[in-house]
Amino acid sequence: MGAAIPASSVVTTALHGDVLVVTIDNPPVNALGAAVRQGLLAAMQQAQADAAVAAVLLVGAGKAFNAGADIREFGKPPVAPLLPEVCRAIEGSSKPVVAVLHGAALGGGLEVALSAHYRLALPAATLGLPEVNLGLLPGSGGTQRAPRLMGVQAATAMMLSGQHLKAQAALQAGLVDKLVESTVPLAAGLGYVRELMAAQAPVRRTRDLTISDPQAALAWLEEQKAETAKKARGLFSPLKIIECVRAAVQLPFDDGLTRERALFMECLDSPQRAGLIHAFFAEREVVKVPEAQAAQPRPVASIAVIGGGTMGAGIAVAALDAGLPVTMIERDAESIARGRANVEKVYTALVAKGRMTEAAQSAVMALYTGSTDYADIAQVDLVIEAVFEDIEVKKAVFRELDRVCKPGAVLATNTSYLDIDAIAASISRTQDVIGLHFFSPANIMKLLEIVVPAKAAPEVVATAFELARKLKKVPVRAGVCDGFIGNRILAVYKQAADYLLEDGASPYEIDAAVRGFGFAMGPFQVTDLAGGDIGWATRKRRAATRDPKARYVEIADRICERGWFGQKTGRGFYLYPDGARVGQPDPEVLAIVDAERAKKGVTPRSFSADEIMRRYMAAMVNEGAKVVAEGIALRPLDVDVTFVAGYGFPRHRGGPMKWADMTGLPKVLADIREFAKEDPLFWQPAPLLEKLVAEGRNFDSLNTAG
Ligand code: T1G
Question: Does domain 487-703 sit in CATH 1.10.1040.50?
Answer without folding.
Answer: yes
